[in-house]
Amino acid sequence: MLLSLRGRARLFTAGRGAAITLYAVLVLFPFIWLLSTAFKKQIDILLARFVFTPTLNTLRELLFDPGSMFSAYFVNSVVITLTTTAIIVAVTLFSAYALTTVRKLPPALGAVLLGWCLLFNLLPVVTFVGSWFNLFRQLGLYDTRIAIIIASVAAWLPMALWLGVTFAREIPKELLDAASVDGCSHWQRFRYVFVPLIRSGMTATTILVLLFVWNDFPIALILSSEQARTLPVYITAFSQNEQIRYAEMASSSLLVSIPVLLLLVVGQRFIVKGLLSGAVKA
């Protein structure tokens, strides 16, 4: 007997709910496992105990133990991430303004630059890390924050520049021309007209760059050994030849994830608004 329309609707709703639930379980399971492991003792992890007594000893040792390097590497990650992002955002803003509003520049320059950005984005970062390692070692900058910042800027600037120019092209040229007619200089047009109009797009770009630099692993792994090490590299130090210290690895991963989660929660609407700002024209 054929199902009625109401029965089909109920079946469809039940199937959709089951699919969403399954997807949510698959997505949340790694986070649930990480959260539970961070509060387990090493013996509970090795014995795969589902019922255990939560402990804060591992987190306490990471944060407050005199021999722990978590705080030092946290400072490295913060300094490298903020400095790299500030440089990339500043260069992107000025470059996007110049390429889209300054008529004296040859039109082919923008096409060549964006083509280079696209080509660079298609290549994995590890393609360039080896040459950067040799360069910074010869310059005496190996295992310094400066080396990682320079390499990170080179790695993520093409993506930011591509997005910035895309957002800048959506700005009505009439507004910038009107500012010129009113006697505004290039700096005044940039500060009072261009920057406010591109703010949403650049906010999304800034958040994306922050996330990519904070989570970056290959650059920090190759260009640091001890002093300039960042948190993603620090986590791998708990995987040793004799044993894998799962509790410390999970606890440090949890602490590293907290700033990322907070940034995503706060900046989610800015990311969506910025990335879709030029998708629909009035």
TrEMBL record:
InterPro entries documented for this protein: BP-dep_ABC_trans_perm, MetI-like, MetI-like_sf
Annotated transmembrane regions: 20-39, 73-99, 111-133, 145-165, 192-214, 254-272
A Pfam family assignment: BPD_transp_1
UniProt xrefs under SUPFAM superfamilies: MetI-like
Bilayer disposition of the protein: Multi-pass membrane protein
UniProt keywords, alphabetically: Cell inner membrane, Cell membrane, Membrane, Sugar transport, Transmembrane, Transmembrane helix, Transport
Name the UniProt record assigns to this protein: Multiple sugar transport system permease protein
Organism this protein belongs to: Klebsiella oxytoca
